[in-house]
Prior knowledge:
Elements: H1 3-19, H2 22-31, H3 34-40, H4 42-56, H5 63-70, E1 81-83, E2 87-91, E3 107-110, H6 118-146, E4 148-149, E5 152-153, H7 158-183, H8 187-212, H9 223-235, H10 240-254
Antiparallel strand pairs: 1-2, 2-3, 4-5
Amino acid sequence: MDAESLRMLADALRKSMAATSGAALDAALADLGWRDMLDEMPEDAIALVFRLLGETGTHAPVLNDVVLRAAGHDAGGTIPLPYVGGSWVVWERTDKPGTALGDDLPIHRVPEGNSVPLAAGRHALAWWLLGSGRAMLSLARRHALERTQFGRPIASFQAIRHRLAETLVALEGAEATLLAAAAEPDDLSFLLAKAAAGQAALTAARHCQQVLGGIGFTAEHQLHRYVKRALVLDGMLGSARELTREAGALLRSKGSAPRLAHL
């Protein structure tokens, strides 16, 4: 698909995500051909859809489709997914909220599940986390430019600028890791990309909360929704902390580190 077609598709997806979420968005994405795109152009489809889910703050149970297709099954169903701490969850294709991981996502704990292909799911979650991180950075940047203190925008204060800059560096580094993994895909590359994206999103949550100050804690402001979403997504298919330890143990057992990107 050429650049202009991708731009038009992104605009259509963004409009759908602005209008609806949950099961209704799941149906809208199916009508837009999401599952066909997942078969025909998986890398572009995953990057586009999941990045926009993060940026718009909406949600849909389409992670199921990515994992199911990677396992050789038809999309459209659900599959148990590993969660942080050795637990398992199912992301239902309904609007009935779960109770274990907040009240805005239909995620429910299940006793256990079978082994699932993790690389494709981590690829999707990494883009979702990056989109969420960039949305938080955008909120904090806008606030820093508009909020004045001592007669000038707080964006002019060094402490604020450092937090925003550190957030941007974390997000850009995580995206570079993800693009390198997509160029030469393997399990370790996507493990590291998911870990980097999770850490970047958590960095964004921490710094942007500080930039926004007290308003960022309120239910009326959008930030808390992105923070909660990042915390849930980080735990899915292994948290940044768990994956970092797993990668370290794997490299120690091999006694060497593979070249993950050609510079």
